[in-house]
Design goal:
The complex is a heterodimer. Chain A is mainly beta. Chain A is 13% helix and 38% strand. The longest helix of chain A is centred in the first third of the chain and has 16 residues. Chain B is an alpha+beta fold. Chain B folds into 3 domains: 238 residues, Class I glutamine amidotransferase (GATase) domain (Rossmann fold), CATH 3.40.50.880; 104 residues, no CATH class; 73 residues, no CATH class. In chain B, the strands form 4 sheets. In chain B, strands 1, 2, 3, 6, 7, 8, 9, 10, 11, 12 and 13 form an 11-stranded mixed beta sheet that branches. In chain B, strands 4-5 form a two-stranded antiparallel sheet. A two-stranded antiparallel sheet of chain B has the order 14-15. The longest helix of chain B is centred in the last third of the chain and has 23 residues. Chain B is flat and about 70 Å long. The chains are: A mainly beta, B alpha+beta. Chains A and B meet through β8 of A and β5, β7, α7, α8 and α9 of B.
Chain lengths: 203, 462
Amino acid sequence: MDNKLLVLALGFRAVTPLVGLVLAVSGCDHPARDAADRRANAKSQNDTPPAIPIEAGMVTSRDQPVAAAIDTDARELRPGGQFMVSVRVQIRPGWYIYAVDKPAGMVSPTSIQLELSDGIEQAGDWILPAPSPQAGMPGETLPQRLNFVYDGAIQFECPLRVAADAAPGEKTIRCLIKYQACDRFSCRPPSETILETAVRIER
Amino acid sequence: MLRCWFAAGLLALVLTGSAPADEPIAVKVLYCGEPGSERAADYVKFLESHFSHVAVQNLLTFKEEQATGHDVVVIDWSPVYDAGKGEMNDEKWKTLRKAPPLGANFRRPTILIGGAGGTVIQSARLKIDWLCLCLDGPAHRVAVDHPLFHAPLEVNPEFSEQDTPADYADETVDPTLGKKMSVWRMQTKNFPEVDPGLVSNLYGFADSPDAEVFAQGMAGKGPDTVTLGRHANYFLWGFSASPADMAPAARRLFVNAVCYIRKFDGQSPLVYRTSPGREWALRYALIPRQLTDEGRKRSEQQLREMLPRFLNLLPQEARDDPEAFIAKRVEQSQTAYRGWLKEVIPQPLHDEFGMDVEKYQAYYHENLEYLRPDDEKSQKLVVDDDAKTVGPSNRRPEMLERCVGMLENNDRPELATRLLKRYTSQDFATAGQWRAWLDANKPRLFFSDSGGYKFFAQPASP
């Protein structure tokens, strides 16, 4: 399989500015697309993502304070079809990771990259969870001592599209998420996790 | 006459422990870093000016058997942060992560420098662990009386006083920490000009005879951190600056560190870190301070002062109604703290003391000698009522003596046996067997929180 790596670190946009873009590309009546729009709309209304249920298997521990899972809102697709890939991250109480594309200082911000099989392409920017400003936490390493973090359960979403000339068969979607987990007392070394899921293309 | 001068010189060397300044010390050093880099050149030049043999090895391809023929291994790497910007360079970090971990059986004297040192021993469960790569200040609580500071070179650190950071009051269990700290600036450059340094977990670090703390560090996570320390054959040199950016006395100390760790060739750790030191209970007991009305107001005020400077980074709701946003954010933060508190404070204590930090502190100080982990996976430290009944402390051999005495006198034998089994790795059937074991091992017994809240016996001297 000839995979291509999509480096998206520079392509992030915050949730609110992205809503217009998502709506603009949602002209098709694909159910998955509708679901994505509904979620994006829900976010635009109060700027706070809805609570995300903890999935089975996403168990955190003292040694592994961050757990992540990947999923798509459709499994079987046709050429031209759009769907959403979501990465859910569960962060242990008291722990946090640093926001994408926000200043982080001594610690490393989160980054997320997709690696897509031939025939699957990115159809828009990532929809990022809203970061929380955090003040007064020891280890805040910016001179201003204000960090932007994610805590609790968060979700990243990205719209994908099946190319018009995509060959039928199973297509792999891999996601590399890099993050650094800290709590009040410690910071783990920057870590990375590779998540993988698949969709089936039918003619 | 010549023989007399030679003898006198030798005697002086023995008495002072000092080598002539212009004569390299007979130690073979293997520097494992990034050959060809500016940093490696600086380190090698420095090492060659003090030691008789210095070889260079690429850390990324280092194999443990390559240490054969060398006295001391130095683990180092080039900076992984972009100097001046203060941001980790993802590619540089990715490269460092390729460094092979040191195996559990690597016993050669080794100096672990900063993040590179922390990277290669991450999975080793040493007391030298990765608390955080957040050392951005000087050393404090420096053990200047230790031989490390006096041989072969005399090291005279220059101490100065500085204000204690305001938030350290919530990040230390040291009751003597005042408004001023006596610190030693070991580096002439600090983060972000150089990489942040590595610090290890202080609590329980020195609770076994194979581990020593030489200096604590003023780190982002507080002052209760180890930045110069030894565990078995490993020496933590947490500071990241290369020799050119070290204070002169720090360079001399590094020379001594090489000579000192050389003595521990072949030593294996007596314990591995499996449990939190009991001082963590005192630290956790400070968390409720964040949950009081005063703590809430402090958090709100901090956000109120800072957010206007970051408006462009904030969601629209923060710009539309900053006060509502601050209130919501502080509530989220407090909810996380409350959830966290449940993980580290036993529920009955939480029910009894609520958010009263003073009561938690008093309770844990009063019961410090009887604490142990709730269970293997828990962060909670609870009072062992059995140990408290017997006294005087679950970490002093006197408790074992009392327990064996109880068995011999048929005084609450179930309690005595329970404690003996809980705190030793032994399982004997009779009082006589417990007595024989205790008498044989008592002079060599030590207790380690880090090692799993057990008594261990040091190996007998050869």
